[in-house]
Amino acid sequence: MTTQGMPSMDPRPTGLTIGTYDTYREAQRAVDYLSDEKFPVEHTTIVGNNLRQVEKITGRLSWGKAITAGLASGAWFGLFVGVLLGLFTSGNGGWLAALITGVVLGGLFGMAFGAIGYGQLGGRRDFTSRTAVVATTYDVLCDFKYAEEARNHLAKLALKGEVAPRLPEQSN
Q: Which residue numbers in the chain have pLDDT < 50?
């Protein structure tokens, strides 16, 4: 269902592949080059292929780390609340008292919640990590009408040696 006057956004990519790159940065550079050449880049799309989720383990999680992380996040939240409360207090030391109270109480509650959260894990996930979705390759697609012009521009970029698209894989 579309709103009258508003174009519908079809999430499926269309167009011809004008270049395949190993990294997103290279695909982004290719589109940036097209923009520098005054090419109508609104007719291009970058598509990540063969997506996979990668979880990089950053360390071991322990009681001390869980409580310290809870203390830090709680203190930051408490600082925020203390500043807000301090803005609406009157008197000489009222804002400072609100600030200190917010940090201390936020830190205590944060420690408690950090300990409770770690305790509930029961040793099942006692490590920290970062998660990202990455693609094996990135295709730059272009509307059919503009594909040949775009390929010509990208060939000039490849000749400069800045960014070169992958060569199509040959099947034997």
A: 1-2, 170-172
Q: Which amino acid is at 37?
A: E
Q: Count the alpha carbons within 13 Å of 35 in the hemisphere toward its beta carbon.
A: 10
Give the span between the Cα atoms of 7 and 22, in whole angstroms: 32
Residue 77: what pLDDT?
96
Residues 119, 155: Cα–Cα separation, whole Å: 58
Which residue shows structure tokens 């997506």? 51
Q: Which residue has the tokens 């550079």?
A: 29
The CA distance from 156 to 142, in Å, is 17
Query: Looking at this protein, which amino acid is placed at residue 20?
Result: T
- N-to-C CA span, the chain: 46
Q: Are 151 and 33 in contact (CB under 8 A)?
A: no
Distance separating alpha carbons of residues 33 and 41, to the nearest angstrom: 10
The two tokens of residue 78 are 């408490």
pTM: predicted TM-score of the whole model, two decimal places? 0.61
